[in-house]
């Protein structure tokens, strides 16, 4: 479902996620609802009329007029510094969406689901995990979540809660790990991926989201391990935010 025009939105709630990331909950009266994994466009308009637009993944799904976003700071970005540092409850902006029909999960699909997130790439995947948690039964899911350090994990508390029943969660740390960590620290490797994901013979549907370099590496490791490329869906983002 995609709407064609811009919709007025108001910031209803702002929650800290990490030192450099925020959770934004927007009230969008005309929001038509969205599927887990979709995204939207945001448009900000300055007092002098200058406008800036960026795309952001949606952390929520389903019907309703509340839309949740997770925004990580890109220091040299044009939009994310405002969203993560300056925006306040009650501020207004415009959104267009929902957008995208490829990187979405269908709850009627019984195939196992493998989620692979790098940094803020967790945002659309948390929407998928939440949608699964809302069901009495459904496809089994695993999450491989790669972050620089424990403090850089968005939605960490929720991921841990979901990991007690809905998700089989594996953490990966690229720079520093928590005390007592005995696992690998660094980029994903064929071995670390093989230990964390569904085996290729499961015919799992994989969703991989994160920075471009991470997504290319993770998707390549899945395919090299035996995953059918047609079963690996990717969504990536660069540094312009």
From TrEMBL:
Superkingdom per UniProt: Bacteria
Cited InterPro entries: Cbr1-like_FAD-bd_dom (IPR008333), FAD-bd_FR_type (IPR017927), Flavoprot_Pyr_Nucl_cyt_Rdtase (IPR001709), FNR_nucleotide-bd (IPR039261), MRET (IPR050415), OxRdtase_FAD/NAD-bd (IPR001433), Riboflavin_synthase-like_b-brl (IPR017938)
Keyword Iron-sulfur listed: yes
The keyword Iron is assigned to this record: yes
Cofactor(s) recorded in Swiss-Prot or TrEMBL: FAD
PROSITE patterns xrefs: FAD_FR
Keywords: 2Fe-2S, Iron, Iron-sulfur, Metal-binding
Name recorded for this polypeptide: Oxidoreductase
């Amino acid at each position: 479902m995609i709407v064609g025009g811009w919709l007025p939105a108001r910031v209803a709630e702002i929650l800290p996620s990490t030192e450099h990331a925020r959770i934004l909950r927007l009230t969008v009266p005309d929001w038509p609802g969205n599927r887990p994994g979709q995204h939207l466009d945001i448009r900000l308009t300055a007092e002098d009329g200058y406008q800036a637009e960026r795309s952001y993944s949606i952390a929520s799904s389903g019907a309703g007029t509340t839309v949740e976003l997770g925004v990580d700071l890109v220091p040299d970005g044009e939009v994310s510094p405002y969203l993560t540092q300056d925006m306040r409850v009650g501020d207004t902006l415009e959104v267009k969406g929902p957008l995208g029909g490829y990187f979405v999960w269908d709850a009627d699909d019984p195939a196992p689901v493998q989620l692979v997130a790098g940094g803020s790439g967790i945002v659309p995947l948390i929407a998928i995990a939440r949608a699964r948690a809302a069901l009495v039964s459904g496809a089994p899911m695993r999450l491989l979540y790669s972050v620089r350090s424990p403090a850089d994990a968005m939605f960490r508390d929720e991921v841990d809660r979901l990991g007690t029943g809905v998700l089989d969660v594996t953490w990966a740390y690229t720079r520093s790990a928590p005390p007592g960590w005995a696992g690998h620290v660094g980029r994903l490797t064929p071995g670390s991926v093989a230990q964390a994901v569904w085996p290729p013979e499961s015919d799992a549907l994989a969703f991989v989201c994160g920075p471009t370099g991470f997504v290319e590496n993770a998707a390549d490791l899945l395919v090299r391990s035996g995953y059918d490329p047609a079963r690996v869906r990717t969504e990536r983002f660069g540094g312009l935010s």
